[in-house]
Amino acid sequence: MKERLCILILAFAAFLTGSCIYPFTPEMEDLDLGLFVIEGDIRIGTESYIFVRNTQRLTATGSPVDIMADVWVENDKGEITRAGNYRDGAHIIDTRNLDPRASYRLHIKPYSGMGYSASPGYNTEYVTDWLEVLVTPEIEEVSFRVDELEEKITFHVSTTNPDANPYYKWNCNEVWEYTSQFYASHVFNPNRNTVEESPNENRHYCWDRDVVPDIMIASTDALSENRLVNHQIYQLPFASDKLDYLYSIEVIQSSISAEAYIYWEVMLRNTDQPGGLFSPQPSELRGNIHCVGDSTKVVLGYISASKVTSRRIFVSVNDFPMQNRRENCSAFIEINLAEESKMRRYYFGGYDVVFLDEMTNITSWSEKRCVDCRVKGGTKDKPDYWPNNHN
Fold first, then answer.
1. Are 159 and 139 in contact (CB under 8 A)?
2. Are residues 268 and 353 in the same domain?
3. Whole-model pTM above 0.70?
């Protein structure tokens, strides 16, 4: 009996050894549900950023398309505050001075036209539930740590809430200063075919900005004290272009309800962490936004209202090991001032002057991306709070 059992075991092992294992990839229908996705919060004490977009296909990899809409906040007295600016996909509402003792709801009415009228849901109004304003505790500290092993910088928050509410959410606004590789002392004027000294506004220093899309939440419900110490919320790799020269992050802290926390926790599980609300969604998740006049129409998103607190810190390139983030710029091309046609060819071919040797009348040229920092998408719009003296 034992011998037969041994033979059966050996035979089964041989079968497993000789069998081939093939990867299995289930076939999934690449659906586009065409649902509206609305992200943002009513943030008293700072501006509120509201994003309106569509869901993407599961296989989508590009950025979602921003949708223009009429967006406004209504209080329980019927008073309305409309979005006054639109920047980088966000409808911006000035909610800095709203009364935190009132209740609020958010209205969104996507515009028809602009290629949208054929899509379902446009020219339809969406509204949130009425929201009580939660008061947020002060941020005690925002700090960063340099992780040389993983070559990244992590950002951390410390806060204590004397109230019972244990649920937190953060939003982050980024601004960074960067430079072109070369500081150009001269510029080519194609209207005159001349090389002239650069105007007062240089092309070396630029500023750019972004809103962090990551979902950043935490709960102290399982802790003995409603306190967070050095809680990590965000990270950047050393190689990020945002760390080229001087980087600033504004951390905006909100208290949220238990329902909002559950929503965002499920959203994090549905996306690759750090995830974003506009990432392709594997499952439907409803929030507190509804279609006016059609309760069956689904819209994704969860809006909270809170009196927020915030802090800003700066990170200099000197705060972490230098990384090679310089542009791959070619060696200077030298052109004599008398060669006007050659200078025009290079200018319209994507080059510009770096400097002029007035002793020899020789100009040195490089690619515009190496000379003009604005080519990478930034501007000369220096924030008022920026610590540097140069423009």
1. yes
2. no
3. yes
pLDDT for 21 equals 43
CA 130, CA 175: separation in Å to the nearest integer?
Answer: 33
Counting the structural domains of the chain, the total is 2
Q: What share of the chain is helix, strand, coil (3-state, %, to 5)?
A: 15, 40, 45
Do 145 and 197 have their domain in common?
no
Separation of alpha carbons 249 and 263, rounded Å: 26
272, 287, 319: which is the final residue of a domain? 319
Query: Cβ–Cβ contacts within 10 Å for residue 146, how many?
Result: 14
Statement to judge: residues 167 and 245 lie in one domain: yes
| 248 and 338 inside one domain | no
Mean pLDDT within 30-49:
82
What the block records as the tokens of 319 is 């705060």
Enclosing domain of residue 340:
180-204+330-376
The string over 87-101, giving b where at least 16 C-beta atoms fall within 10 Å of a residue's C-beta and e elsewhere, is eebbbbbebeebeee
**Chain centroid to CA 64: how far?**
12
Residue 281 has pLDDT above 70, yes or no: no
